[in-house]
Design goal:
This protein is mainly alpha-helical. It has helices at 3-16, 40-44, 94-101, 107-115; strands at 82-83, 90-91.
Length: 122
Amino acid sequence: MPATTMTSESTILASLDVSTAPRPWKNPNFKRTTRRNKTLKQILTLPPPTNPDIPTYANIEAPPSLLPQKKYCDVTGLEAKYTDPKTKLRYCDKEVYGVIKGMANGVEQQYLGLRGANIVLR
């Protein structure tokens, strides 16, 4: 290879090298911490907390949620936004509503029974 080709290749490679490019988004004073996550064995061998009311990894009991309970579609299992006023079945979109309207008598009672909301429809 000629020497001119070698120098031109090295200048091209030097211009494409991104390791020397300035990185203004990086913090030059950043120090990586030595803190690591604990393993399950380490968590379970920890002494119990002094205040038993505070939920921890070992104490899975927590206070009830303040948010309202989510309602799910009785047919698909997706989150339901609507309720059929006649059958009281929950549904997520108009396609499922069409399926509910096309159900035979008694099938909606089985869906309500699965949810635990047995009612007698007239």
